[in-house]
Design a protein that fits this description.
mainly alpha; elongated; 256 residues; 60% helix; two-stranded parallel sheet
Length: 256
């Protein structure tokens, strides 16, 4: 072992007995690897490393190999990293990552030999702390975004929309959803880039969860057919129905 690694081993040992805080974000690579592979490293430190280095696949591979990595951190890695890392988790730990209901999955894709462990990330997310969920919302892959956008916590749900990996297709899907926090819909409707897309505009004005202040300015951008549907809809606020009706009348009179 190099002098540098030995030095960090000593630092970690002192950290364990509460004498010194560990700044994982500033560890040298060789020292960080020593921390990860040291069987004395507690699970909370490994979780901090996973969050700080969620885009470094070499570090993530070392973490997956670590015997004292807990299930919550493993789920975080699986929902943040690439498909290659998910495969690595399966090969290294014999664990298959599942998104959704484990019972339903097992019914359709049973493993007769019973050789596969299954990590149901939807269940594990329920055990995550708010800070873990926020970090996952900001960095996670599509599966994580689809789960966390439905969180009752406004901060967690809104963090999903700040994820740089989010796609316009996801935004369109979220715009149609009636079981999201109203603030999520408001943030989508206030984003100039996303609302350039007419399908998102149509989804927002038809969604009963969309605040009236967001819907009304978009009435001028929907088609006559959609105006007719909105005028008769009982699911949207009366102010939006009235605006659609007024818009239709003006168009028929050639005043729009």
């Amino acid at each position: 072992m190099t002098d540098q690694a030995s030095k960090w081993k000593s630092i970690i040992a002192r950290r364990f007995i509460g004498q010194l805080p560990l700044d994982v974000e500033r560890c040298a690579p060789i020292a960080l690897r020593a921390v990860i592979l040291d069987v004395r490293t507690p699970a909370p430190i490994l979780d901090r490393i996973a969050q700080a280095y969620c885009h470094d696949e070499e570090i993530l591979r070392d973490l997956v190999r670590c015997p004292n990595l807990d299930e919550t951190t493993l789920a975080f890695i699986a929902l943040t990293a690439s498909e290659e890392i998910k495969k690595f988790i399966f090969v290294t730990r014999g664990t298959e990552v599942i998104v959704g209901d484990a019972a339903a999955y097992a019914a359709g894709k049973a493993d007769p030999a019973g050789t596969k462990k299954k990590l149901n990330v939807q269940q594990v997310i329920l055990k995550m702390s708010p800070s873990q969920k926020i970090k996952l919302a900001l960095t996670g892959a599509k599966d994580a975004r689809g789960l966390l956008i439905r969180e009752s916590s406004k901060i967690i749900a809104l963090s999903v929309l700040d994820n740089p990996r989010i796609t316009i297709g996801e935004i369109e899907f979220f715009s149609k959803s009636t079981n999201l926090n109203e603030e999520v819909i408001r943030k989508i409707g206030s984003n100039a880039e996303w609302t350039r897309k007419n399908t998102i505009i149509s989804a927002l004005v038809s969604n009963p969860k969309t605040p009236v202040g967001i819907s009304l300015p978009f009435i001028n951008r929907v088609s006559d057919r959609e105006l007719g549907i909105l005028e008769k809809s009982r699911n949207i606020p009366e102010a939006v129905r009235s605006a659609a009706r007024t818009r239709l009348i003006k168009k028929k009179l050639g005043k729009a």
